[in-house]
Amino acid sequence: MRDSDGSPFGSSRGRPRVLDGAAGTGLVAALGERASASGVERFNLDDPGAVRALHVDHLRAGAQVLRTNTFCSSTGELLRRGVDHPAEEVARAGAELVRAAAREVGSDPLCLGVLGPGSGTGEGSGEAGADPHRIRGLLDGGVDGLLMETLPGVQAARRIVEAIRGLSSSIPILAAFTLSEGGLLPEGGGVREVARFASEFEVALVGLNCSFGPAPMERPLAALRGAWDGPLGAWPNAGMPTGNDAGWTWPVSPASMATWCRSAAESQHLQLVGGCCGTSTEHVAAIAAAIAHSDGSTLP
User: Fold this and answer.
1) 214 with 256: CB under 8 angstroms?
2) Which of 126, 131, 188, 276 could be stapled to 74 by a disulfide with Cβ–Cβ 3.0 to 4.6 Å?
3) Which helix (H) or strand (E) holds 233?
C-alpha cells in the first residue's frame, strides 16, 4: 500500500489511512490476568496465535496500518517484568505476526514497528526506545517504518532517532508525541518544538497520540498543523479509564471517537488517524466507516 510517488507515508492528498486499535487493550481483553501480569509483548512468542488474531480482527474492522506489539519490549523492560525472551526475538516475531495476519486476510497494510520510549526522564529519557536489539529485530522482521510512539519530548525523540540511524539510514521514521493535560510535552516545551524536531530529522510523519483523549488534543493538533506542513497524524486514547474488579472502562465510545477522527482529519489535513489506549476493534470499525464517508484531507 504505497502512494503513486512510491512513498508509504508521504501522501498529502485523499483520505487518511486508518490505524489499528490498541494492542494492550485487545490482548488483555482476550487473555485476561496472564496478559496483565507481565505485559503483552511476550505473547509474540508465548501465544502468537492470540496476537495474530488481534491483528486479523483489526484488519477486518478496516485498519490499513498495523502496529507491532512491541511498545514495552526493550531489553530492560522485558527483564524488569521477568520475561527472559531476547528483545530482538520478541521484536522480530512482532513484525512477522503482522505479515502473517495480512496474508490470512489477503490485504496489504502498512506495518509499523513500534518503539515505546520507556519511563525514563532527564538523562535517561528515551533509553528504552533506543535499545538496538529491539530496533534490529523490527528491521529484520521487515517493517515498513519505525514508529516512535508516546514520546514525552524531543530529547527522547532525538536519542531514539540516532539509535535508528545507527542501524538503518533509509527506514522511514514516524514520531508521535504525548501531551500533558495542559497540552504541553511532559518533558517541557510544546508543539513548536515538535515541528522543529520533525523538520530537522526529516521524519516521514509526525503526530500526537494517547494523552487525555480526543477533546484536549484539538487545540495542540491545530497548533502543530500551523507549525508543520508535512504529513500529520493523530490517535488519542479513549479518555481516562476507571477501574474495578471487572476491569477497566474507557469513556470515549466508538461513535464519539469516529466523529472526532473524521472532523480532525478534515480540518487538520491528517494522513494517519485512529486511536490509542482503550480503542477496540469496534472503535477501528467506526473510524474506518467515518473516514470512508469523509471529504478527505486534501492540503490547500
Assistant:
1) yes
2) 131
3) strand 232-236
pLDDT at residue number 151: 97
* DSSP codes, 144-165: SEEEEEEE-SHHHHHHHHHHHH
Helix %, strand %, coil % for the chain, to 5? 45, 15, 40
Helix or strand or coil: residue 189? coil
Residues 167, 136 contacting (CB under 8 angstroms): yes
**Number of residues in the chain:** 300
- At position 20, the amino acid (one-letter code) is D
Of the two residues 86 and 119, the one the predictor is more confident about is 86
Pairing verdict, β 232-236 and 65-67: unpaired
Cell readout for 290 is 467515518
Report whether 33 contacts 227 (CB < 8 A): no
Q: Which domains does the chain have, with CATH numbers?
A: 17-292 (3.20.20.330)
For the stretch 56-97, pLDDT in tens is: 999 999 999 999 999 999 999 999 999 999 999 999 999 999
- State pTM to two decimals: 0.94
- Side-chain-side CA neighbours of 145 within 13 Å: the count stands at 23
- Segment 27-51, tens digit of pLDDT: 999 998 888 778 999 999 999 999 9
Q: Which residues are within 8 A (CB) of 173 and not within 5 positions of it... i.e. 6 or more apart?
A: 145, 146, 148, 161, 164, 201, 203, 204
What is the residue whose three cell numbers read 494523552? 211
User: What DSSP string runs through 34-93?
Assistant: HHHHH-STTHHHH-HHHHHHHHHHHHHHT-SEEE-S-TT-SHHHHHHTT--S-HHHHHHH
